[in-house]
Amino acid sequence: MTRSSALGVLVAALVLTGCGGSPEPDGTAAETSAVTAAPAPDPSPEPERERERETAPLRAPRPAASPRRLAERIVDAERTVRGGTAPAAEVRQAAFDAQVLYRQLARTERWQPRTYRLLPARLRAAARVHVAARRDFRGMHSSLSDSLPAWRIVAPAPARRLLAHYRLGERRYGVPWEVLAAINLVETGMGRIRGTSVAGARGPMQFMPATWAAYGKGDIDDPRDAILAAARYLADRGGGRSGRLDRALYAYNNHPAYVRGVKRYAAVLRADPRAFTGLYHWQVVYLSEVGDVWLPHGYERRDPVPVRRYVAVHPGHQLGTRTG
To answer: Number of structural domains, the chain?
Structure first.
């Protein structure tokens, strides 16, 4: 449905490719079987915690100093995220920590065997999937940008509301809620990124205008309308109950790595729906020629900005080098 403008949050950043086209090198998530729907407990935060979701200040996580520390910190972060009892501010920080640590693990191959051995089995499998997804999306880039994008980073819709939209899409069209959540994550960080792609794709699920005209109802920038349009589009291409998910995802973005990456993130959610809380709180982290750069809530640029100039002014937003 669209093309790629950023692949920077989760891939470079996110994918920002939009619905149905070939990606351009720039953008955020193995070989797993097609994701299928499954009943799941509600992993979203309690309402009073949800109201705090973007208010507490975040600290930029520091890289781990060794494979042992990397494994220990992943365990601590995931325990906080998935435990369901920590204060909202701690959950947000732990989710950001986990995101940065998984990125470090993905780019530091020599640490991977030992780190995996040190992780408990329940997290070892998830870590492998996160690393594989990063590899998929990173492989969609032939080069890295020397500038940061003209985006506005905003608070996402509440987690409960997004979950309700994903599950409505599943009920109506048969597309697994985990797949819709994974696309929302990969395309715009659950709606954090406001911006139009170089090809004109818009909204939290990145629709091209012509595709929106065919499948959209309502407001292209509204999370509910966009998520249901994505479910409608995927179902029309066989991604619903007919079980041709790979073909449908390939129509959404014509790259096999995109198909694999989205399915991997969906698999993380299927294995443990509580992981949604962590992915929901992932930040916009853009992979540039100087490495990972955090674009926090409140970032707003009308024109691209040279990345070296930005990190000179905001040194704490540079999270890691290209090689780790």
So the answer is: 1
